[in-house]
């Protein structure tokens, strides 16, 4: 059975800012890749996916992870593939980190889903809707409050 984990972003956490959130996504991506997973980063749209790819390019040399946008890169893709709702991820992805606030019907093809509950009220409501969709699809669900110093 597939699992879905929602990370809760509290208003006072560093992840509540865009740069703090971006850094956390890079941290999680690297963490999963170091454990041998093939990760798919799902953006809102093509422009968002390209922005995520650019963030990965700007990482410090010790934090760099090979990545590619859907349709680019080697035949069997890199450890991280970046896309959006209108493209199909490579077949060999185990984990999706969902950065979009849109429909989650794509999630069933992954064994692990990582999603977020942002601070902003409208985004929080959209996260609740995604949570319901995962539950109805039979995912094992858990929530984790992001720990910060």
UniProtKB/TrEMBL annotation:
GO terms for molecular function: DNA binding; DNA-directed DNA polymerase activity. SUPFAM superfamilies: DNA polymerase III chi subunit (SSF102400). GO terms for biological process: DNA replication; positive regulation of DNA-templated DNA replication initiation. It comes from the Bacteria. This is DNA polymerase III subunit chi. The lineage of its organism: Bacteria, Pseudomonadati, Pseudomonadota, Gammaproteobacteria, Vibrionales.
């Amino acid at each position: 059975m597939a699992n879905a984990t929602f990370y809760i972003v509290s208003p006072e956490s560093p992840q509540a800012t865009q740069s703090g959130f971006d850094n956390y996504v890079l941290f999680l991506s690297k963490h999963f890749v170091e454990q041998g997973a093939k990760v798919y980063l799902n953006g809102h749209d093509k422009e968002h996916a390209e922005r995520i790819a650019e963030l990965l390019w700007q990482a410090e040399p010790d934090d760099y992870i090979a990545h590619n946008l859907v349709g680019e890169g080697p035949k069997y893709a890199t450890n991280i593939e970046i896309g959006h709702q209108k493209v199909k991820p490579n077949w060999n992805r185990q984990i999706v980190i969902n950065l979009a606030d849109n429909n989650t019907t794509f999630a069933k093809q992954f064994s692990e889903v990582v999603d977020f509950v942002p601070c902003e009220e409208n985004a929080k409501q959209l996260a609740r809707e995604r949570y319901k969709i995962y539950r109805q699809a039979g995912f094992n669900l858990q929530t984790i409050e992001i720990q910060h110093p």
